[in-house]
């Protein structure tokens, strides 16, 4: 469900104004009746000021990799229905997010040395919006399959589209900037980043990293900038979500790099850390005060595979200095079929597989 997007700058301004607002008048001031002699003030009892209502829990639905290759390409002829038949769980959530694993737009040229080249027209963003997706990360190893020469078209499509996009930018500051959404008064900051360049099975993409004067991806092979962005987001938002493109393709258990980075992200203030890239599901569970789902698999993809939508119920912090907490995690199993779309499947065997994945992820 689409929510109003904010900016961290606006949030910081609101926070600053609230901090500087004068305190209310003391409600416990006593009164006395005039008389010729001083009267002993009568004891009074004042009711405590009403406490602000606690923000309601909200739902965050996350799914894995989406592109529009093979049978999915023709579905973009009608963006309004391209993905909608398969995305009920995403559309039902307060905030929904996927990884868009493709270059978008026109122009540019195939990136030398890339074995797989994915591309989609600007209508991909309209299709995602119609399917109920709110935020898309494009920090991955296919967004620049047609080089930086296509990025001007990509950014124009993002500006005209109905979804917030994170993980790429005209410079590093923009690439690491979060989308901030308002869910009934709870501010939710969402960031995207990639470490896919560390995967020995994937084509090198570290050269796509955005810098201070060059567009590209939010590359976290050196995680310093990502961790700083999470800390900044945590200072301005109630809930912080980080979506990583990480791990090794084909592996069902997270590697040491994933585990280490997840831990550091939670320590920096991320309440939820999710990821994709391995083309299969990986384990999920609680990590300290945060919740981590290492692998979400392929969601709308040109080859068949088991997949799922993970819906998290998130309780916002009770105080500005508190932490949000995931109170429920619900997987909805599916399988990507010949048409490229995920179709719900029976749970038989799925819960046992999730338990196995959680075990090898250390949960």
Describe the structure.
The protein is of the alpha/beta class. It has one domain: Metallo-dependent phosphatases (Purple Acid Phosphatase, chain A, domain 2). It has eight helices and 19 strands. The strands form four sheets. Strands 2, 3, 6, 7, 16, 17, 18 and 19 form an eight-stranded mixed β-sheet that branches. A seven-stranded mixed β-sheet has the order 1-9-10-12-13-15-14. A two-stranded parallel sheet has the order 4-5. Mean pLDDT is 88; it is low at 7-40.
Structural descriptors:
single chain, 363 residues, alpha/beta, Purple Acid Phosphatase, chain A, domain 2, 8-stranded mixed sheet, 7-stranded mixed sheet, 8 helices, 19 strands, 21% helix
Oligomer: single chain
Sketch the topology as an H/E string, one letter per element: EHEHEEEHEHEEHEEEHEHEEEEEEEH
Structural class category = alpha/beta
Q: Quote the beta fraction.
A: 25-35%
CATH class: Alpha Beta
CATH level 4 superfamily: Metallo-dependent phosphatases
CATH topology: Purple Acid Phosphatase, chain A, domain 2
Summarize the main sheet.
Answer: 8 strands, mixed
Count of DSSP E strands? 19
Which term fits the overall shape? globular
The overall pLDDT average reads 88
CA(first)-CA(last) distance = 30 Å
Specify the CATH architecture.
4-Layer Sandwich
Report helical residue fraction: 10-25%
The radius of gyration computed from the alpha-carbon positions, rounded to a whole number of angstroms, is: 23 Å
Number of helices, where a helix is a run of at least 4 consecutive DSSP H or I residues? 8
Task: Please give the domain count.
Answer: 1
Low-pLDDT parts are 7-40
């Amino acid at each position: 469900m689409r929510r109003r997007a904010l900016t961290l700058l606006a949030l910081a301004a609101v926070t600053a104004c609230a901090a500087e607002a004068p305190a209310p008048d003391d409600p416990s001031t006593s009164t006395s009746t005039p008389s010729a002699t001083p009267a002993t003030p009568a004891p009074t009892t004042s009711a405590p000021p009403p406490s602000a209502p606690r923000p309601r829990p909200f739902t965050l639905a996350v799914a894995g990799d989406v592109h529009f290759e093979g049978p999915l390409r023709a579905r973009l002829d009608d963006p309004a229905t391209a993905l909608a038949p398969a995305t009920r769980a995403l559309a039902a959530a307060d905030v929904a997010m996927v990884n868009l694993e493709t270059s978008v737009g026109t122009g540019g040229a195939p990136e030398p040395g890339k074995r797989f080249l994915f591309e989609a027209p600007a209508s991909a963003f309209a299709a995602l919006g119609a399917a109920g997706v709110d935020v898309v990360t494009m920090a991955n190893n296919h967004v620049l399959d047609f080089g930086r020469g296509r990025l001007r078209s990509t950014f124009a499509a993002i500006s005209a589209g109905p979804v917030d996009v994170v993980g790429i930018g005209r410079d590093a500051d923009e690439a690491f900037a979060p989308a901030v959404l308002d869910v009934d008064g709870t501010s939710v900051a969402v960031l995207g980043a990639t470490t896919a360049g560390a995967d020995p099975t994937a084509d090198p993409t570290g050269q796509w990293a955005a810098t201070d004067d060059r567009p590209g991806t939010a590359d976290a092979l050196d995680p310093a900038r990502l961790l700083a962005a999470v800390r900044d987001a945590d200072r301005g938002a109630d809930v912080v979500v980080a979506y990583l493109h990480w791990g090794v393709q084909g592996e069902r258990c997270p590697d040491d790099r994933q585990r280490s980075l997840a831990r550091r992200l939670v320590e920096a203030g991320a309440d939820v850390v999710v990821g994709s890239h391995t083309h299969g599901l990986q384990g999920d569970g609680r990590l300290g005060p945060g919740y981590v789902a290492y692998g979400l698999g392929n969601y709308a993809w040109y080859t068949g595979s088991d997949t799922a939508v993970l819906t998290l119920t998130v309780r916002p912090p009770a105080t500005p200095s508190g932490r949000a907490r995931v109170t429920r995690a619900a997987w909805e199993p599916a399988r990507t079929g010949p048409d490229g779309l995920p179709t719900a499947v029976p749970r038989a065997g799925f819960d046992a597989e999730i338990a196995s994945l959680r075990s090898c992820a250390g949960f």
